[in-house]
Amino acid sequence: MKALPEPNVPSNTVTYFLKEALRRTWTSKRTSFVAIIMIAISLFVLGSFLLVADNLGRAVERWQGHTRVIVYLNADVTPEQQRAVDAFFGAHPELASRHFVDKQEALQRFKTYFTNLAEVAGKLDENPFPPSFEIEIDPNLVQSKSFLALTERARTLPGVDQVEYDWEWTRRLHRIIELLNVIGIAAGGVLAMAAAFTIANVIRLTMMLYREEIEIMRLVGATERMIRGPFLLEGLLQGTIGGAVAVGVLALAFFAGQRTLAPSSSLLWGFLFGAFLPWQKIVALILGGTVAGWFGSWLSVHQRAEEA
Amino acid sequence: MIHFYHVTKRFDRYSTALHDLTFQIEKGEFVFLTGPSGAGKSTLLKLILRQITPTEGQVVVNGRNLNTIRRSLLPYFRREIGMVFQDFKLIERMTVFENLSFILTVLNVPPKEHKRKAYAALRAVDLHHRLNAYPLQLSGGEQQRVAIARALINDPLVLIADEPTGNLDPDMSQDIIRIFADANLRGSTVLLATHDRDLIRDSGRRVITLEHGRISDEKIAVPERAPARADHVFGLAQ
Q: Each residue of A136-179: pLDDT tens digit?
């Protein structure tokens, strides 16, 4: 006699939840796909902002390690004026670590940093870059009143055009990074909410599809946990998959960009393609998807339970 | 085991399904509930399963007042009741075995026991050979028997059936009554709603007759002729 095929027995409640969640996701694959894509898009946007902000932050940190004052001289500065300025710095130990950048070196640096503009710079009749002194200073000194008074005095020396501080730049960049983070979180948050509502609707549709089954479950004594569990897990899975897809696409885009764009114009792309997100942020992005998915399914499951 | 105290159920101002019903069914009893279509049989059964609540009066089942039972306790209450629905309520996407196994999962029965219990329940209704069939591949009578197997699978304290022989031929109906009688002998209190008077006539059981939502008659169905064997009284005749 031919043996009957082995029936499929779920080993425990969690296995049952997981099996059901996967099956339901597969059954309504089109709507589930939309929900996953929505989550992925929102987290991709958030991830992109985080990535840019992260790389800018790293660049700023690098600059902060070498806090500098740049003293630009007039283009027509005389050698005497230049020597006088140099002597002034030499007389003050906090400004003594200095390096003179002549017009030619300034032009060369521009060509190195902005390779795609190098050709334009080469066609100029006259070198427009002024000579300057770059002074490395102790980062702890920069905010002191005596130091500020000293730089104010340097500003009045003959032959000196401008005195610029790196930390003003970095402060501005910090503000930009903060803004990028806020925009990223706000845009990502709004999109994640939209994605959560999409998931809520997907789960609601699935619950309507299974309403007879839910009724039977209630009548035979299934607890709300047993009924809701697979639906909650379904949203959670969709959110997690969406988060993983977002991180995957972001990584692909980043590494492709790093290979193709970064070498062509070193400064800007070098900043943006410095390094990918740290693992903590990758995990946070994926967990963000998980939470959005769970929230979406919780919304619809809660609402349907109230209606029941 | 089942107590109704002045129970009235109105669905709206113009339709009253049950009028001031008072009766009780003791533990271990086997009771037939009969009456014409629309008499209120299904409504009464729904009240016992707490699918609906009474408009007036109290329903107490196994010591629990169903008017005041907490929503969170409802699943645990329902697990003590085996219900055979008129429309079977089988899950179509699940096989016969999975329909039964699912109940065992709900009841937190260890998975190791699923196969044994499901097989035993299906064997009792002579359907163990259709373990892997889907409900839609079965005849109405077979679906009915799967629904009965599902209701019996955990030896419920109370077994309720709404027209369980509605889709069956007389011989199969007798077999089904025998299954309920077996469950009754194992300790389940049985309430079986049917409008099949032939089934009741020689049963020797208590019969509650409903008409227009009221109890019109309540008696023991005494066989007109003495049965050849006492088994007939208990529905055990083969």
A: 877 667 667 777 788 888 888 888 888 877 666 666 777 887 88
Q: Which of A13, A206, A220 to mutate to test the interface with B (most CBs of B within 10 A)?
A: A220
Nearest to A167, CA basis, from A193, A197, A131, A139 = A139
Q: Which two tokens stand for residue A238?
A: 């969709």
3-state secondary structure (DSSP) of residue B192: strand
Token look-up 């309507």 returns: A208
**For B90, nearest residue in chain A (alpha carbons):** A216
Residues of A within 8 A of B105 (CB-CB) are: 10, 13, 16, 226
For residue B85, the chain A residues in CB contact (below 8 A) are 219
Nearest to A72 by CA among A167, A172, A168, A157: A157
Alpha-carbon gap: B83 to the closest alpha carbon of chain A (Å): 8
Query: Could you tell me the CA-to-CA distances from B158 to A67, A176, B26, B155 in Å, in that order?
Result: 84, 71, 11, 9
Which domains does chain A show, CATH number per domain? Answer: 13-62+175-302 (no CATH), 65-170 (3.30.70.3040)
